Every structure is written in structure tokens, then in C-alpha cells.
Amino acid sequence: MRPAPASSNEPLLPVLVRLALPIAGSNLLQRGVGIVDTLMVGRLGAAELAAVGLSQLLIFFLMALVYGLGIGCTVAVAYHTGAGDRDERARAIRASLLLGLAASAGLTVLGLSVSEPTARFLGASGQVLTLTAEYLVITWTFFIFKVMLHMAASIFYGVGDSRTPLAVVAFVNLIHVGIAFPLVFGWAGVPRMGVPGAAIASVVSEAFGAVSLVVMASRRGWLSWRGCWGDTLEVRRIVSIGSPAMGERLITHGMQLAYTKLVIGFGVAAYAAHQVGLNIEALSFLPGLGFAQAATTLISQRLGAGEGPAARRSGIYASWLAVATMSAFGVTYLLFPSQWMALFTTDQDVLAYGRTLMWVMALLQPPLALALALKGALRGAGETKVVLYAAILGGWVVRLPLAYLFGIQLDLGLVAVWLTMWLDWWVRGAVVLLRFRRMRWTEVRL
Questions:
Q1: 194 φ/ψ sector (left φ>0, alpha ψ -120 to 50, else beta)
Q2: In this model, does residue 387 exceed pLDDT 50?
Q3: CB within 8 A of 174, min separation 6: which ones?
Q4: Residue 306 CA to chain centroid, in angstroms?
Q5: From CA 143, how far away is CA 363, in angstroms rounded?
Q6: Per-residue pLDDT tens over the stretch 131-186
Q7: What is the rounded radius of gyration, in angstroms, for the C-alpha atoms of the chain?
Q8: Domain residue ranges in the chain
Q9: Which among 67, 296, 303, 318 could bridge 291 via Cys, Cβ 3.0 to 4.6 Å?
Q10: pTM of the full predicted structure?
Q11: Are 78 and 304 in contact, with CB atoms under 8 Å apart?
């Protein structure tokens, strides 16, 4: 989608939907790489399933830094797009890519250093620990491709083009599937590699996606290779907007790591079911996240054009769409829990845990959708600190203490641990809703 002028008189709702749907598709396809890995290794056994799930959790944790930079990139690029300043937008794009390169170098070193000790601390041992380490060594060594794919997609979203990343990520998934199946299962004369084969397929496919998007941004004239690559003002803008988003992701994923330790304590089958449930929930979470990211872009563009009331309406529309979409998925989780779980595993112990988890996931959808959409809206207005505070309150003050109290100390079991997710997201949703309603949108400046 070619970016429309931010001052366009076209109704906001159609613009939001056209921007959000390809973003949701891109998110789903990017997550689809992990989902496909889970589907494949789930046929190998519970240990392989748990190893890939734990690996993805650690990857998500370090990707929090990149996610924050991506938010800063999208907001800066969208703001300059709305203001009609192409030179400033080019500076923001160069600064974003430079920050992405620096982040990938640091995270590669960090990931290689801490992955195995962290996995061991979280409770992984034996075959699960070995497979986790094998998967992560490959991922961290070529982590630059995952980082640059995310940063390049963030540039396109800021400009207002969400269809191109969707098309590229679709090809990424096709390449991944084409490589992963023979590597994991040993087809067509290729040696059976299992879990490491899934990691190799991810690396190769993400490399294609990252290079493709950067080349296309250059050909469209958005990325100029000449000029300063470390513009101080743009770097500060991206980092100042992105830092609280980084913090929010780190806080959330750090909480999830501690939460994972509680779940793993109930056994490998329990954690495998937990991981499968998260992959299933991604099918509803990612469309909601698409509306949130579209709200970030559209609100930043409207603010850049001086249209505060239109920015506020964008956030309201995104919230209603996210709640409706994710709640519809929740109904299917409630009605067909066994069928959803059976898509990923045939292990009877995992299926038994998973059916109960799907009922919890169904209840979780409305508050999760509300919090997601409003977080995206607030980020578009530069209000990233509130999102950080909501994550601390919901995750570290509510979810973790109550999960430990009810699930471990009072011995109420795994269901009690899972139900604290529901409380967590209601708290986060209430915090961001209160801030959204109190904002003076006509006075917002990035």
C-alpha cells in the first residue's frame, strides 16, 4: 500500500483496516516460522517440543531490545511521513538501520554467552538442555538477519506500506518450510537433523527477507545510502521513544521467564502444553497486535500532520477491532480445545494439560486485546513509559506473586498459575485505558 498523505480526508476506519490486515498477516507469518518449527518437532517428541519452546522464549527475551528500536523507528518514520519531510525521514531510516546493526552485534555475543546457563536455571536438563543449546547456537550466530528483518519491516510500516512486508514474509515462510522439512525429518537424501535443522531453516529464510526489504526500501528512494548514518537527533528520538518499549518487553519477557520456571516445575508435559497453547494463542494475538501496530503508525502520522482528534479516533477504532477479532478466536478456544491442541501434538499427557489451558486462553482474549490496542495507540503518541509501568504492575506485582502463592504455596496446581495471566492483562488494560482517556490529544507533540 502506497502511503497516503496524513491529512487525507479518507475515513479513518478503512485506512486503519487496510494498514492493519497486512501487518497482522506479516506478524502471523513471522510467528509462523516458530509455529511451523513447533508443529514439526512436536512430531519428534515432548523433549524436542519443550526445547524449541524454551529456545523461542529466550529469543523473544533478547528480541525485546530490537522490538523497542522497531517501535522508535516506526514512530519517527511515520511522524516525518505525516509532516511531509522526506529528508528527515531518510535520516531516521539510516539511524534505524545503524541502531539495528549495533543491536544485532551486541545481542549475538550476549545470546551465545548466557543461553545455556539461563536454560539450565529455568529447569532444563538432559536432552531438553542439549537440544535447546543446539538450536540457540545457530540462531545467535546469524541473529543479524532476524534483527534487520524486523527493523526493515518497521520502516515500511512507518511509511504506511504494510503490504510489501507481508509479501516478503510470505516468501520467507515458503523458503523456511521448503528447507525445514527435509532438514528436520531427513527427506530427499538430506540427513535427519531434528531440532538444529529447524534453526538452520529459520536463519536462511530470514536472511532472504531482511535483504529483500532493505533493497526495496533503497529502490523506492526511502533509504539514501549517502549522508550521515548516525544523525544525533534521530538516534536520540528513536532511542527515547523506543527505550521504554524495550523496557516493557524486557520486563514482560523477564516475567515470562520466571513464570516459565514455575510451569516447568509441573513437568515436561505441562511445559510442552504451555508452549503449544502460546503458539495457538498467537493466531488471535497477532491480528490484535496488527491493529495495535496500525494504530501506532496512523496516530504518529496524524500527529505529524497536527490532527490530534483523528489520532484519538484511530486508537478507539483499533481497540474495538482488536477486541472483536480476538474474542471471536476465544470462542473457538472454548468450544474446540481438543481440536486446537491436536494440531500440534499427539502426546496424551500434553493434550490433557492443553485442553484446560485453552479454556483459560479463551477467557484471556478480551483484556489482552484491549491492552494490546491501547498500548499501540499510546506508543504512537510517544507515551511509552505508561506502557512500561503497566507491564511492571500487571506482570511483576500481580501475575508472578499470585502464581507463586496460589500455584505453589497453597498447592492449587497449574490451573491457578495459568489463571493469573487473566488477572495480569486486566490490570494492564485498565492502566492504559485510563491514560488514553485522560490524554489531551490536541496538545501531543513527539
A1: left
A2: yes
A3: none
A4: 30
A5: 35
A6: 888 889 898 999 999 999 999 999 999 998 988 998 998 888 889 888 888 888 87
A7: 21
A8: 12-443
A9: 318
A10: 0.74
A11: yes
